[in-house]
User: Fold these one by one.
Assistant:
Number 1:
Amino acid sequence: MHKMNSNALFVVLVVAVGVGAVALPHSRQSSPGKVFLFGGATEDTSANIYDALRNATGKPSPNIVVAITAASSLAIGLEAYYIDDPGSWSYERLFTFYGFQPSVLQLARDNWEEGASNSTSLGQANIRLVEAADVIFFNGGDQSRHSRSWFNTDGSDSDILGVVRRRFLDGAIVAGTSAGAAIMSKRTYGEGYSYGYFYFNADLKECDIGETLQDDRDGTNSFRYSDNGGHMQGFGFVQEALVDTHVDARGRFGRLPAAMRSTLTPYGIGVGEDTALYINGEEAVVLGNDGVWWVDSSEAQFGIGPYFTVTGLLVSYLTEGDRLNLATKEVISTKPLITTNEGVAYDSRDVFTGREGIRSITTLVTSNSTRSTGRSKERNPTANVVFHRGQGELAYTMDGKFTVDKLHMDIYSI
Ligand SMILES: *[C@@H]1O[C@H](CO)[C@@H](O)[C@H](O)[C@H]1NC(C)=O
Ligand SMILES: *[C@@H]1O[C@H](CO)[C@@H](O)[C@H](O)[C@H]1NC(C)=O
Ligand SMILES: *[C@@H]1O[C@H](CO)[C@@H](O)[C@H](O)[C@H]1NC(C)=O
């Protein structure tokens, strides 16, 4: 712990990342518009989520246009739209079942120049669908393919993305699952694993449109390639926060703060599987069966390395019905406050594995412990993840679901 107090290791971000950077800016501003983020692996039977999406349009049978641009090709994307899988419905069947009128864009990474242009008949047909849509829904897969399909190679908006932005300002909902949610941030990041982001000290590869998000700077047979990741331009419908998905199933709460530092984004949203966060202007509400992490770096201090170090992150975890005010950053839960604390918090020995983070924080807030200390299973170095109580954190529970409001999280090497 001595290391933790050394000024040599603790410098503000402006020093840590060099010229032009400021401490991750935070503000009371929030973006206008309606964004519906699905954390991936949504069950076809999760009527609460799909009904909320339909209801959010204010129409009984809204038009939803599906972009399959995270698929590897137009043909494969159209298959996911039209053809049921053994375990899951096609998008067409799914959205029809929940009362939408679905359509699909003939746009993918292998035809983007034609499909995104307003001077081709294919592009014009796509643009007409966007013009008529109440919801524009982006599929799951790989978000670098979304960016390849929707941006020009120089990073400017394609003609059709310009139309999506106009529809968004007019009140259309932009929605997406998994990669389709991750692309909503100003920068989108991906690939790799929490330990790799820690090991490489939040040094994500800065990728261009048309590249993948894999960090190939040490070649494609390297640890960096398998465990680190990259970031590139995203759509920016969510302005102040980075979006990650599958967060508990894949232990991604550990990579989110590293990606926040790498992209200079002050807040992080990590949506769990079969869960959604509906952002309507300043107010966000959680739907579904798992939870959403909200990570706030406004009081955090990032170290310089060699491994990723941060202290003083504020971490909240919200479940169905909970609300987050994006202007004030206030967490609002209708669940009863936890007032009795018994037992000890769980200390994970493999903290970046699925559900270990959430187990750590929920056992902490019900226990009489002041901290939960988790470790990576990897050694040399080991990543230490400490959740601890400070002043003012609150926790609520009902029917086995928890709300945690402003726990502190530190990550450092031992
Ligand atoms: C449906 O939407 C309206 C406003 O658009 C909202 O007041 C209501 O709570 C929503 N109902 C459900 C079940 O989501
Ligand atoms: C095509 O898109 C560009 C912007 O990308 C816009 O300036 C132009 O007006 C559009 N043309 C038509 C016919 O919509
Ligand atoms: C906390 O709970 C543990 C296990 O129930 C118990 O052994 C310990 O005495 C408690 N500590 C305090 C400070 O209440």
Number 2:
Amino acid sequence: MSFDVILPFLRPIAHLILDPAITEVMVNGSGRIFVERDGRLETVAGVTVREQNLRVAVRNLARALGDDISEERPLLDSRLPDGSRVAAALPPVSLGGTTLTIRKFRTQHFTAGELVRLGTLTAAQLETLHRSIAARDNILISGGTGTGKTTLLNALTAFLPERDRLVLIEDTAELQLEAPNLVRFEARREQVGLPAVSIRDLLRATLRHRPDRILVGEVRGGEAFDLLQALNTGHSGTLSTIHANSAEQALTRFTSCVLQSGIDLPYAAIRYGIAQSLQLLVHLERRHERRLVTELMRVGRYDARSDSFDMQHVPGGAAGDDACQIHLAPTSKPVPRR
Ligand SMILES: Nc1ncnc2c1ncn2[C@@H]1O[C@H](COP(=O)(O)OP(=O)(O)O)[C@@H](O)[C@H]1O
Ligand SMILES: [Mg+2]
């Protein structure tokens, strides 16, 4: 169990960390403790942590994770082996006392069929995605935090042909996929004495390992440029996710990620490149405690004059609305939130 590394330092809140219903544990500078349970914040009454103890605990757990937090480096952003995050801030940066936040890694895996049954997407949408993967379209899944992007990506990997050599690149190894010819790369943050290895570094390295398909867990920065390059040089059939508020905004966000790479390309050229390289956008939203595909769109041509993409809704793409109605009907059973 991965929390074993840090529990010895956090005895007063160990029960909260171990409670599977709690997704986040927060200790404020004041020593007050909050948790997130079922997506809601709760105060934890009757438990406090003394500042002095918390400060020592945070230093020790940082060390146990191969990191460091001190007066010179007062911010900790560390990960447990399972991907859970431990963030801390020491005074005086954190006013009034040490702040500690533990965000538990908890992605339950759903198959594509289960996602259809949950009403996240329709069978027709799934069929479109299946065919699109077989046709080696490049697919980008967008949505806000926790909308189920990674979960959908994971479910869709079941449709990847067995004969393909897959290279999967992630910030934190989250996806669970089984494939006969699979190479997995995980980025590394900078740590004491160890330089960072970025998604971008890994993407470039990937091209030397003869990939048939490159999967990128999430596009968040300059690697978007390298991904476009790879897609333009025959490595099609990619699946990836991006943080955005709508399918169209996903393209804007992708553009700004490409710009972050520092390449010297005209804006319109980047947008043309995106229109050529991405074929399908799937957008997810969280509504009434459910995750829904609210947009499934084909990316058409880019028009530089209006700076817009010709986007076409894939028929049967209104799953979100149907599912919402099912959810709101008085006879419907609530779907357990995970
Ligand atoms: N379709 C879904 N229905 C119910 N729960 C889901 C669904 N998709 C994801 N989840 C749950 O929501 C949480 C966040 O999912 P994740 O895929 O990591 O989101 P994202 O990648 O968008 O941040 C996880 O706990 C996951 O199990
Ligand atoms: Mg994700």
Number 3:
Amino acid sequence: MSSRSPFRLASRAIDSAKRPFSGAEGRRAPLAVLSEIRQAAAVCKACDLWKNATQTVFGEGKPGAIFMMVGEQPGDSEDRKGRPFIGPAGRLLDNALAEAGIDRDDVYVTNVVKHFKWSASERGKRRIHKKPRDSEIVACRPWLDAELEVVKPRVLVCLGASAAQSLLGKDFRVSRQRGQVVDSNLAPAVVATVHPSSILRARDEESRSEQLNDFIQDLKFVARLAKSIK
Ligand code: SF4
């Protein structure tokens, strides 16, 4: 691994963030560390997903955010704009957070995979989301670990099965275990719920409304959980 390896850059930035303050050579502000990690991730080629994507979509939010919400991967809009959770699912998430009484500024959003994986639709006009392989999720994991290290959220929320299974184990089932606090060293409290995109795919309006309500209830629980942790 060369000294210019993005992973080397990320781990150097994390080491710096951990170092105790000792004058001019001491610890840098977490925001600067996060920015350095973001720059390193921007040139990552640790798996093949960068080849067909527009750009790395790194997480967004501030260090010290109370909540970190982790999805699977950026979607079409996110890939084009280079920002996570800004498409239809992101808008649904924002509205649900507001309904649950969670301030959007208290939330850091990111994905387990930072490049958009897709295949062309039959007529080649649309880019269809493709599930990332385990090897791609594993290759991308150091970036998420770096984000966790700097942001240090009080509550980590896995959005959907891909995020939950990659962070909480292959046996984790969102359908059965959503809303349960999971024992993990990733954050003081870790829970999982559905990905907002699954609500958008509901078969009809009634089902969508039910699923949205359940999602908001999960977020309200997450808000209460954060208050219980000091
Ligand atoms: S998906 Fe992750 S590991 Fe793969 S190239 Fe992109 S940033 Fe690197």
